[in-house]
C-alpha cells in the first residue's frame, strides 16, 4: 500500500487487493480502513513517521475471517511523486500461524478425547487375558465393544485431521462452483442406513438448479454433518427436513440457503452459542452413546466461515431444532 501523510490509501497492488478484498470504490482495498485503524499498525505508523525509520507491526484482522498480517512500514522522504509518504509492505502469515495452532490443538484434543476409548480398550484386553480367557460368550461381547471403541477413535482422528485442514485454508475463499441441489440429493440418499437404524424419515425440499460459488466437497460435508447430527440427536421414528434453495442473508444479500430441521427434544437456549465449539456436548453421555465425535458442528462452522457465509441455529425445547446455512452467490 502507498499512503499519504493523512494515511489515505493512494495505491494498492494486486496482492494487497487479494489480501484485503477488492476496492468498493477508489484505490483502497475493502479492508484497508480496518487495517489502518488497527492499534498496532497505527502505533507503528506514528513511530516510523516520527523517527523517519522503518517499523514493523503484527496485525490480526478478525473479519471476514481471521487473518494474521505482518506489516513492514517504510517512510518516504522526500515523498513520492503522487504524494505518497509511506509504503506499507504486507505479508499474510495466516497459514503459518494456523499450522502452528493446528499442531498444538491436535495434540491437546487428541490426547484428551482418545484417553477414554483407549482406557476402555486396555480394560477389555486385561479382562480377556484374565477372567474371560475361557468364556467364549464374554469374549464375543467384549470384542464387539472393542471394535466400536476402535471405530470411534478412527472417526475422531479423521475428524480432527479434517478440521485442521479446513482451518488452514479458512482464510482463502473457494474458487469453484457447486451444484448445491445435486450435492444435497446425493447426501440425502447416503443417509439411508442411518435413517433406517433410527427408524426416521427424511423429507427433502430441494429447489432445482440451485448452485453457488463454493467447494462442492465442503458443501457436501456441511450437509452430511448437519443431517448426521439431526438423525443422531433427533427423535427416534422422527422426521428430518432438508431444504436447499435460493435465500437471502440477514443483510439482504442474495445467495443459497441450506436448512436441516429435526423434531427432536430441542436445545436449551443457554447451550446454543457454544454448539460449534470443539467437543462441546449438551448431554455428554447421550452424545457419546449416539456415536458422534463432537466435531461435526465445529467443522460446519469453519467451512461456512471459509465461504463467507452464515450459520444460524434456531431451537425450541420440545419442538425441534433448525440449522440454517447461507452461502453467498447463487
TrEMBL record:
Its main location: membrane. It is an enzyme of class 2 (transferase). This is histidine kinase. Its EC number is 2.7.13.3. GO terms for cellular component: plasma membrane. Transmembrane segments: none annotated. Keywords: ATP-binding, Cell membrane, Kinase, Membrane, Nucleotide-binding, Phosphoprotein, Transferase, Two-component regulatory system. PANTHER family: PHOSPHATE REGULON SENSOR PROTEIN PHOR. The keyword rRNA-binding does not apply. The keyword Membrane applies. It comes from Neoroseomonas oryzicola. The lineage of its organism: Bacteria, Pseudomonadati, Pseudomonadota, Alphaproteobacteria, Acetobacterales. It catalyses: ATP + protein L-histidine = ADP + protein N-phospho-L-histidine.
